[in-house]
Amino acid sequence: MDLDLIRRLSQPHTSKVVLCVLDGLGGLPGSRGRTELEEADTKNLDRLAEAGSLGRTYPVGPGIAPGSGPGHMALFGYDPLVFDIGRGALEGTGIGFKLGPNDIAARGNLCTLGPDGLITDRRAGRLATERTAEVCARLREIKLPGVETFVEPVQDQRFLLVLRGEGLSDQLVETDPQHEGMAPIIATATAPEGERTAALVQQWVKAAEAMLKDDVPANGLLLRGWSPRPEIPPFPELWKLRAAAITVYPMYRGVAELCGMTPIPGAHTYAEEIALLKEHWDEYDFFFLHYKYADSAGEDGDFRRKQDAISAFDELLPQIVDLKPNVLIVTGDHSTPATMASHSWHTVPLLIWGDNVRADDMHQFSETLSRNGELGTLLAKDMMPVAMAHAGRLARYGA
To answer: What is the rounded distance in angstroms from the CA atom of residue 224 to the CA atom of residue 36?
Structure first.
């Protein structure tokens, strides 16, 4: 998508647009030959599919398995290969940490290491946030020469590490191999300008590991997504609308806020997200609503739990439809098949329902039928112009 073209064509309108992102939505067939989405009870999604248009997206490109940051940036209409935001900046913004011009940030996971130093659980049993906060308080005691360090809890086993000082670089190797059964990676530099920073990170990690070595299940840590604060053209200015983000997990609040959306805090469950959507309905034109639980189950390799999470989303979907949005989009930021227990490169189902929709003859929201839908197969970054056109928010191009 050409952002300059969008600036020229976008126009104010009274229409309301809701983007529901089921994190990790796409899947692969299980033992019965159907995906988690196809096994789920999706009577409400299927009703929308009958009246709407289906398609599928590549989050970044064919064969590329994206992180959540690139996946969401693409859904918001930004080319994820141009606007490459590290996980650290997303986590920091999501918890309200204001990154400065001399900061670099990393997203951390507390993890479990075996006696041989290999990772046995990348998430330390999904440690409670309160316990992670206690660990962070101890990690703040670690000092580094010439830089300030900040260690903040995020959610569950996740934490934020920020280094602040002159001449720091994000040109570092991540220490998270993203697989169990492997040792944490040493944070080496990927370019000469990163060598000093890499040495500082190695010093910090060594001190942290010594501090945590007896604290099973959180006796290790992993760092990834080194990043400074990015510069992004604001979403509300591009599309000439008021945009809000409703999320439970801080990272997704962070990516939305970096794009200029207004975060609406206070949700701890999906039901509370919908309650906030209703409460603030008249204040905004565009709502991004994030639903995490399908992805969490997929990453844990739990096919049935992912299926049930999709069913739970579907159960409350009528409350969103009853608000009468002009355009409702349901999709995912990437696929997380439970059979793989990880993000994957597979396409993601896409549903657009509402005004000006040319309905196809698909009767179910599924991976199988999405491949034959009206919308075809898109790069995810091209989805937003399609949605905004349905909402009457794009003017005609040319005479």
So the answer is: 29
